[in-house]
Amino acid sequence: MTGITIALSKGRIFEETLPLLAAAGIVPSDDPETSRKLIIGTNRPDVRLVIVRASDTPTYVQYGAADLGIAGKDVLLEHGGDGLYQPLDLKIARCRMAVAVPNGFDYEQAVQRGARLRVATKYIQTAREHFAAKGVHVDLIKLYGSMELAPLVGLADAIVDLVSSGNTLKANNLQAVEDIMPISSRLIVNQAALKMKRELLQPVIDAFAGAVR
Ligand code: PRT
Ligand code: MG
Questions:
Q1: Nearest alpha carbon to residue 166 among 116, 95, 81
Q2: Domain ranges of the chain
Q3: Who has the most CB within 10 Å: 36, 97, 124, 126?
Q4: How far is the CA of 105 from the centre of ligand 2 (A)?
Q5: Confidence category of residue 98, pLDDT binned at 50, 70, 90
Q6: What is the pLDDT of residues 8-28, one digit of tens each?
Q7: Does 1 score more than 90 pLDDT?
Q8: Global pTM?
């Protein structure tokens, strides 16, 4: 395709990307929250959006099914970033990756006495690296969502999850006991597409960069 295909997930990334797209003169023709279309046109005949699951965005861009995409650092760390150029931190969809435990669970003490912790998470790679760097022994349990439930029903001692307002932890009698890293979304670019279609892609990248500042 000679135009530009941009992969986006609906929800917070789509919402927070709208102003960036506007800065590049791109206005979507449909709202993915109400439309069932997976390919959405824009005011520019040479630009289309593909609506994908957040964790699938790097895959679409890696294989060139999309030229550009926007993905959380959490997702990129799990994916590994192969074949992707990551020129910009867009500073959107911000939150933090943290370790959380039930209120009353003495995490520090468990770590100090060298207990083997069961940790439930969607972010296996990031969690593995974090605990390995600290020298904490963990059994990682892979989940695909609602990590907060795991410690409440005895599936895990702790979770590694994203926290933004903290309301989800609070509502489930959990607390963050360790920050792992701040998270925001990045622009990702297919490396081959950037070479082949630079005259088309670079102005969009530049407009995004301008809008971030
Ligand atoms: O589609 P799928 O469910 O697989 O993906 P997803 O849930 O990761 O997608 P989406 O659209 O919810 O998130 C897309 C990206 O937004 C993530 O990859 C993060 O980079 C970023 N982001 C920013 C967040 C949050 N903030 C966030 N708070 N992603 C998820 N959450 C969840 C968190 O996992 C927890 O369950 O919100 C809950 C906590 O929020 P608070 O406000 O109660 O603390
Ligand atoms: Mg979600």
A1: 95
A2: 4-93+184-212, 95-182
A3: 97
A4: 27
A5: very high
A6: 999 999 999 999 999 999 999
A7: no
A8: 0.96
